[in-house]
Amino acid sequence: RRYRGEKQTEMAHIRSDVCEMQLNGVSEVMDLLQIDVETDVVEDRPGREDAPCSRNVLRKQRNWERQLAAKKSKRKEEKQRRKLNREQESGARADNPQFTKRVIKAITKERLAEAQSTGLKLCVDLSMTDSMSDKEISRLAGQLRRLYGSNKKATRPFHLFLTDLRENSRLYRECIRMNDGFLNYMMDITEESCLDLFPPGAVVYLTPDAEEALETVDADKVYVLGGLVDESIQKKLSFLRARELSVHTARLPIDEYMVKKNNIKNFHSKILAVNQVFDILLTFCNTGSWTEALQAWFPQGKGYVVAQDDSPPLPVSA
What we know:
Elements: H1 2-87, H2 101-118, E1 121-125, H3 134-153, E2 159-163, H4 170-178, E3 188-189, H5 194-197, E4 203-206, E5 222-226, H6 237-245, E6 248-250, H7 254-257, E7 258-260, H8 274-287, H9 290-297, E8 304-306
Parallel strand pairs: 1-2, 1-5, 2-3, 4-5, 4-6
Antiparallel strand pairs: 7-8
Helix pairs in contact: 3-4, 3-8, 8-9
């Protein structure tokens, strides 16, 4: 019995030791967990110290992106400047490379405003559009857009008038549809005729069927272009319109400065679009040279070339 009691006592001690070991194990596990947590915390702290480095990297990246954007903008402005250099006179104010697009726009607006008070006057007679097809109307609207674009780029722009343009007309609606900001164009748009605005003696109607060649551009005159696209090639429409108005007529000096050029189709035409005639006039006013103006703007496909200085132009039949 004594042996049995001692054995029970020993077993109790063993169980107590086991429980203590288990408690110690749990404690050690908790300690390990605590260490892990603390280790995570400790390991997380250096990350916070590295945060300024990340911000520095982001700041450098943003600075680099800004530099790239600035270079791109500079290249764009340089491209626009080179384009202006090609299109405008050498030495014109808008050719200054220091001028931004905004400044160039302001200069253009100032020039157009000055032209409306002191510039040469040019009307586009739009009274003949009723007989035109929708396709021809659309083409004329495009020509008017290009004409205005050329005037905007000019060093000395014209004071432009669109006459006989009714608000309920197909052309008026097509101009608004095709041309952004048409109603804000810096030109006079009116339903009146050119004779309602100017005395007949001051008007010179430019038509390819006129007998007299235009020699120069007079500041006291008002020049009129027939706003007409005629794919059916009806002859002398603008000339008959000028006769109806009883005004003086003139033609571009194509016969005096150009000669026929041989081509496979044997095609020769002196009929030009409204904007082409305007570009020739504009260049002549800036250079004083019909040769330069016709060389620059007379379409090659029309079958004419500028005559060489050493060879007089050949006679050209009407």
